[in-house]
Amino acid sequence: MDLKEVRLNEIIRFSELEKLFKCYSLTSGFDVSLYDLEGGEQLSVRRSGSVCAAMQGVSACREKIVQSGKKAEELGESYIYETPCGLVMCIAAVSLEGQSVGYITTGPVVLWEKDEFFYEEVREKCAGMGAAPERSLLEEVRQVDCERMTAISEMLRVLVEYMAGQEKNFLEQRLEIKKLNLERLRTQREMQIRQSNPCYRKYPEELEKELIACVRLGDKKGAKEIINRFLSEIFSYASGDLGIIKAKLYEFSAFLSRSAVEAGAPISSLKNIVKKSSRLLLDNIDFQDLCSSTIEILEDFIDVVYESRSGRLSNEHLAGALRYIRQHYAEDLDLQTLAQNVFVSTYYISHLFRSEMGTTFSDYLTKVRLEEAKKHLAQGLSVEKTAELVGYSDGNYFIKIFKKYVGVTPAKYRKSVMQ
């Protein structure tokens, strides 16, 4: 996901950041502000009677913030710059997941002794931008030497790095929830075109089994991919009824507990997870909190299983097969090729699919391909191109299979979902 398209309050906890800003401002004696990549102010802590408050909204200041922020981003460190009114500020780029998402500034200060020329020059520059700060505000601006300004710059850098580190886990969770919400909206739209489909309101047992297989193996990445699809299918199965969704997720957490114990996890290690699972039944929990809690519970289960798993995992070959299919579904994939790549016989891998997943290799491959096809169609790709991307050389056969499993033709599905 491109973080530049996400609002800062969706990936940064402003309540915590404001506390940090207040401590910084109280300790340093300087204003501190967070801006988005377009120079729009998002959060500020300023001293009473601040020049920056008087200049807030001036386009020249906004342009200078963006220009200086990009320079800081380019340098990879904080950057000291002169404002349009002649004062000095320090700016640093805020980066999360390797992407710049905003800028933090601190100041203002002057690097020289203030005299009458200073006051006249600054007020003249401000007047040219449509602002007229009182002289008393300018008198409050502190004079610092270059050494102290460098220290301020370093303090800002530490602040930004600390904030980015604290926000990493929060960001990951927010992005997971955002993906789930987008998938939920897509599923809602799909529900409207699946009413007559025989598989409508069918509980996703195959996804449950696939997820449990990943949990037993300690495959966190694979499990997180499945949980997105699983929650969407649960939502579809429940027709949006939050009560049914809660009950099914609570029931599923019991399956995970059993799976963890079977994989060798001690019961004592599951006590805290069981307590978290009980929150799924609370009356005041909404869909977003439900997704967040489910993801947290799942990660805890995987950690417990990974730490306590034994060397004899009966479904290790199956988990490898599932990963291989998801990586190579667009190729001309058959059971023999799959068996060769996971180093087992075709008979054994076929048996694992039936006993552990309750399905066949071909049915599972078809479902993986169709899930990917729905994503391409939702993005507006043509039926022919979609068929090619998911491993179907015969477009007519793809249309037939798609209608059989989804209930409508690919063209109708694309038109309906894109609306």
Shape, please?
Answer: elongated
CATH hierarchy: architecture of the largest domain:
2-Layer Sandwich
Rg computed from alpha carbons, rounded to a whole number of angstroms: 28 Å
Q: Quaternary state, please?
A: single chain
Helix content: 55-70%
User: Tally of extended strands?
Assistant: 6
**Topology as H/E string?**
HHEEHHEEEHHEHHHHHHHHHHHHH
CATH fold title of the largest domain: Beta-Lactamase
Give the strand content: 5-15%
Domains counted in the coordinates: how many? 3
Whole-number mean pLDDT: 77
Helix-strand makeup class: alpha+beta
Descriptive overview:
- This protein has three domains: 3-167, 2-Layer Sandwich (Beta-Lactamase); 192-310, no CATH class; 314-419, Arc Repressor Mutant, subunit A.
- The protein has 19 helices and six strands.
- The chain is elongated.
- Residues 193-201 have low confidence and may be disordered.
- It has 419 residues and is α+β, with helices and mostly antiparallel strands.
- 63% of the residues lie in helices and 9% in strands.
- Strands 1, 2, 3, 4, 5 and 6 form a six-stranded mixed sheet that branches.
- The chain has helices spanning 8-11, 14-28, 51-54, 59-75, 116-128, 135-139, 146-191, 205-217, 220-237, 242-262, 271-278, 287-308, 316-328, 335-341, 346-357, 361-378, 383-389, 395-406, 410-418; strands at residues 31-35, 41-45, 79-82, 88-96, 99-110, 142-143.
- Strand 3 and strand 4 form a beta hairpin.
